[in-house]
Amino acid sequence: MPWTKRMTGAAGVVLLAALFAFALGSCVSHGPAATDPLPSWTDGPSKQRIVAFVESVSDPSSRDFVPAPERIAVFDNDGTLWGEQPIYFQAAFAFDRVRELAPSHPEWSSRPAIKALVDGDRAALAATGEKGLLEIVMASHAGMTTAEFDATVRQWAATARHPTRGRPYTSLTYQPMLELLAYLRARGFTTWIVSGGGIDFLRVLASDLYGIPPEHVVGSSVKTRYEVRDGKSVLVRLPELAFVDDGPGKPVGMHSHIGRRPIAAFGNSDGDFEMLQYTTAGPGPRLGVIIHHDDAAREFAYDRTSHIGKLDRGLDAAPANRWLVVSMRNDWRTIYPPVR
Length: 340
Description:
340 residues; alpha/beta; seven-stranded mixed β-sheet; 42% helix; globular
């Protein structure tokens, strides 16, 4: 007969209660609180500083406690949450879209940038500069309803592949940053994307990629016009810029969409300088983080002289502003999540 069946009366009840309490205590002590929230980050000063900040501002007993409504973290997208080399991923979408549409638009042959793109003439395309890129973006992003644009982005994201990695662009998010987003939300933060990329492009992808809802995306935008087509109300995207959410535009965009100054900001380039500056200038505990692309073996290495994601001013200003510079090479155990 098992020994437990021989325990009777008060002694048996007390012992069973004690065993239950011990088992429960063991579960609690080894439960989520003991789990590393950032397993893809190497143990070191960068991880320690991030965790110390998050814990201090979310602990009601801490002198640095910040109420949940003010616990806001903003993230650049390109180069911070997913890759950006050798060209911005949204630019790849624009290029693919123009190539697809070009046969139906013979009038585009008179536009130097579009002609160079279709002909595969990289030198001629580069010579058109920002004006040429804007022309391509407008040709690929405008002239359709918002619903049609959403569907086009989804189709592209489901099929397009990165030119050197051979993986879907949507699989080139950064695993350490996905963990950070989840960790922040678990500690009561609201997470936002604040990107120079297109707001409508990112709103299609942000929820699936990052768990960030479309209403928490701030980005550059084109003008839209209300129309009734076939008896249905629609918004039509126009070939005119409405707002550029880059550089000094980022604090303006944050104010317009969020209405509060964030307490944490994460970027990777000089386009994020003003976002970091605005965020960390506020009162109370603040955290500014720069993701430094210094891992040529697992990703790309670039900073001061890069034509994409240039990081020069930010590196110089980081020490005086106490911005944390995270080394992808040294601070991240892995770069990308497994391909699903």
